[in-house]
Amino acid sequence: MSSSALLEQISTFMNEQIPFQKHLGIVVTKFDAQQSEVRFRWQDQLVGNAPMQILHGGVTATALDTAGGVVIMASVIERLKQDLPADEIVKRIARCGTIDLRVDYVRPGRGKEFITTATIIRSGNKVAVARMEMHNEDGMLIAFGTGTYIVG
Amino acid sequence: MSSSALLEQISTFMNEQIPFQKHLGIVVTKFDAQQSEVRFRWQDQLVGNAPMQILHGGVTATALDTAGGVVIMASVIERLKQDLPADEIVKRIARCGTIDLRVDYVRPGRGKEFITTATIIRSGNKVAVARMEMHNEDGMLIAFGTGTYIVG
Amino acid sequence: MSSSALLEQISTFMNEQIPFQKHLGIVVTKFDAQQSEVRFRWQDQLVGNAPMQILHGGVTATALDTAGGVVIMASVIERLKQDLPADEIVKRIARCGTIDLRVDYVRPGRGKEFITTATIIRSGNKVAVARMEMHNEDGMLIAFGTGTYIVG
Amino acid sequence: MSSSALLEQISTFMNEQIPFQKHLGIVVTKFDAQQSEVRFRWQDQLVGNAPMQILHGGVTATALDTAGGVVIMASVIERLKQDLPADEIVKRIARCGTIDLRVDYVRPGRGKEFITTATIIRSGNKVAVARMEMHNEDGMLIAFGTGTYIVG
């Protein structure tokens, strides 16, 4: 499979095979084997503290875990042989999973749009680690964190 | 305000003022100043890994943060003077917030219902810490974690 | 190698091959493939806050990581074939390593003796997770935490 | 007290009132209210894995917690009124403490010298958060982490 076909394959997986991400309106906007970016817009149903109008901590955790998962999957795929059939690639991605996640909440989750980036810190054939940051549309740091993932 | 009126006040806050919890169908089933329990049922839209049919890590993080937040809020209220007006209580609860959260994913998130319990480990007038566990309806441990919260 | 010879092999490794543990006076007092216990006594040089006479957070982290490492190593060895030569066992143990560690400090580290226990929570052939608690001689919970380990 | 006298006061505290830091040879090399740097040299007694010649995870945790603690203390002092008597400053510093610490171990701890830097991420009047990184003398990232601290 060509490299562009591969990327399309991954995008399809990410947009179709992760229902909860879709449910929250989290969209993958960039990724390669080193970094990823996901975005979502404010919605009233994502609020965790209505009097204060602040995002639920679980929404932030979801965005961080999603961005981390995307870059981990991309890095796993990059290591695979280029001619692997598409269904085998999906099988490999599906074996990836979060082992643990830490989220540090820096500022109240307020804004119109939230941009979460992830960077690979450790990339092994058993375990991979990614570091994530979430900013709002004004560039304010809302949260950061680290995820440790098992890779197939 | 009487103790039972107080509990009703808190329940109302938790069920009405946390839209994201409601959106995911997470219901507070028990709480006092030491422990809390929240539950939600499987829904296809909560899936993070469709080929494997596993909950999204962000859903688990949301359940843990919710259970932790509930017990923290109950413990904050317990410390307040009994005759505080209801709107003052809401103000105090609204000032609580998660500082950091760690989630350890032990087994794939599969089941019909998920029960998350939280226990207060540290309860100060600045910071409180809760420990959480999520099991499915068969009593299988799916995840555990710790949350550190700022209290008003 | 017999089972008792195996245990002796491990004990020797733990007491001779981990200089920092020895340096702090941390002694492995119990272990099997599910749980471990390590102990150390108060020493003035372990203090992190002299005016308050409290253990350094790094000492507590060391005790937790040590207890976690011990139970992980024991669980790795249990999975090995019984007739593996001793030097091969040492090689396998030496490949284990901490991926990440979280420590929650519950109470000031004060006491005469500190007892840290670890329990295996997840035991895979790539990754293992242990949960740890440290008490003083009066049974006061000083700290708890979680370690994620890579296994050979 | 003048600003330079203040800095000297802090340095004295850090070098004299933290015995465990001294015991491991960890020296504070830079600090202000935003960032800090601590250094230590390889010593055989700091090893956690003798066959592999790798630092004990607890040593790394100690260095990270120390760097984080230093920047937190500096930031607390910066907020104090300039004319506070020296013993009052010591009292304030002594009230600071680590609530929780996460360490991510990226590469085996090998090198001649280890440089740990900390940056303040959140600085409140109840809680402060610092992010830390440890490199060896070749600039290799060995570990990073986050500490949450209570401030007096």
From TrEMBL, chains A, B, C, D:
Catalysed reactions, as listed in the record: a medium-chain fatty acyl-CoA + H2O = a medium-chain fatty acid + CoA + H(+); a fatty acyl-CoA + H2O = a fatty acid + CoA + H(+); a long-chain fatty acyl-CoA + H2O = a long-chain fatty acid + CoA + H(+)
One GO MF term: fatty acyl-CoA hydrolase activity
UniProt domain Thioesterase: residue ranges: 53-142
InterPro entries: HotDog_dom_sf, PAAI_dom, Thioestr_dom
Protein family per UniProt: Belongs to the YigI thioesterase family.
Matching PANTHER family: 1,4-DIHYDROXY-2-NAPHTHOYL-COA THIOESTERASE 1, MEDIUM_LONG-CHAIN ACYL-COA THIOESTERASE YIGI
Name of the protein in its database record: Medium/long-chain acyl-CoA thioesterase YigI
Species of origin: Aliidiomarina sanyensis
